[in-house]
UniProtKB/TrEMBL annotation:
It is an enzyme of class 2 (transferase). Belongs to the MoeA family. One of its GO terms (molecular function) is metal ion binding. It comes from Blautia liquoris. This is Molybdopterin molybdenumtransferase. Its EC number is 2.10.1.1. Its cofactor is Mg(2+).
């Protein structure tokens, strides 16, 4: 790479894209890398503020921004993703199907802390749709030492930074609890909400029991649904500390491993998450507080997509939801394109 006066650059080869910005009209390359500069190009280059310009002179061990962007892209991309071509040293990665985006945050931080290179992503552990933009990569200077790129490759290893886990279409058993519903005192308005949320990720209700506040019956119902092939069991109601609320006890009595009873999320503090493990299966069991029925977005919206993608949630991850765990109940809901659940 060599710096020369633009007016002396006729016949030389551009070593980077030249961007033109016209407010309200366009932003993009007016000349692309590799373009051989012509006499008539000089006024255009001067009009975009290029009194001096870099021309390409290949040096051993030095990578152009486009070559480096390819290396960064390779560090990120994995199955179920597509990539753009390289433009102005940048490559974009998009989802090739609906799914849950997972990010190796430690590796991403290594790259972005290494200097002279960057990868920007959308937030991990959230659902994305086919065609959604996931990440963009580029180096900061026009050229970079090849050895530096190889060093960061070695540090992060062979596992891609991004992973997209498709939604295979899960079947959920629903156990509706509460004397008020069982005896017909009120209508069950909870189950229709769950059905709609499952549909967002290609899921469906495969079994539904309505039971009174008898923890023994609730336990038996959960276990039968699992034995009959339910991929998860969702228990509605009975999650508070009232004496008639027996759902947490019923879930515990299944022998499931309780991850957490309670979460630092509003709405959804009385949420319970457990995993029932048997014969190689790991079935999520959730106790859903009443807010899931009447609030637009709750803790359930943060955990359900992960369950639908077979992505296990840990107690530490639940604890980390406190920062960003307050839904602001906006007049117009834009979730997941908002800060809810995005503390890390």
């Amino acid at each position: 790479m060599k710096l020369i006066r633009t007016e002396d650059a006729v016949g030389q080869v551009l070593c980077h894209d030249i961007t033109q910005i016209i407010k309200g009209e366009k932003k993009g390359p007016v000349f692309k890398k590799g373009h051989i500069i012509q006499e008539e190009d000089i006024p255009v280059l001067l009009s975009v503020g290029k009194d001096n310009i870099y021309i390409w002179e290949k040096e051993e061990g030095i990578l152009h921004e486009n070559e480096a962007a390819e290396i960064l892209c390779k560090m990120c991309i994995s199955d179920h993703m597509t990539r753009s071509g390289v433009s102005e040293g940048k490559i974009e990665i998009r989802a090739d199907c609906d799914g849950l985006l997972k990010i190796n945050r430690a590796a991403l931080k290594v790259v972005n802390g290494f200097g002279q290179m960057m990868i920007a992503t959308v937030h991990g552990d959230f659902p994305v749709q086919k065609g959604d933009k996931l990440a963009g990569t580029r180096i900061i200077p026009l050229v970079i030492e090849e050895e530096k790129m190889r060093q960061v490759e070695k540090l992060i290893g062979e596992k891609p930074i991004l992973q997209l886990k498709p939604f295979p279409g899960k079947k959920a058993g629903v156990v509706t609890t509460g004397n008020e519903v069982f005896y017909g005192r009120i209508e069950d308005t909870f189950t229709p909400v769950i059905e709609e949320k499952l549909k967002e990720y290609g899921g469906e209700v495969c079994a539904h029991d309505v039971l009174n506040d008898d923890h023994t019956k609730i336990t038996e119902s959960i276990l039968k649904m699992i034995d009959d092939g339910a991929d998860m069991v969702l228990c509605t109601g009975g999650m508070s500390v009232d004496p008639d609320d027996k759902t947490p006890l019923a879930i515990k009595n299944t022998g499931a491993r309780i991850v957490s009873y309670g979460a630092p999320v509003l709405p959804g503090a009385m949420f319970l998450l457990a995993y029932y493990e048997k014969d190689g299966r790991k079935v999520p069991i959730m106790g859903l507080p009443g807010c899931v029925m009447y609030s637009k977005r709750t803790i359930f919206d943060l955990i359900l997509p992960r369950a639908m993608a077979d992505d296990e949630v840990t107690a530490d991850e639940l604890a980390s939801l406190g920062e960003g765990g307050l839904c602001l109940s906006c007049m117009v809901c834009t979730f997941p394109n908002c800060g809810f659940g995005k503390g890390v």
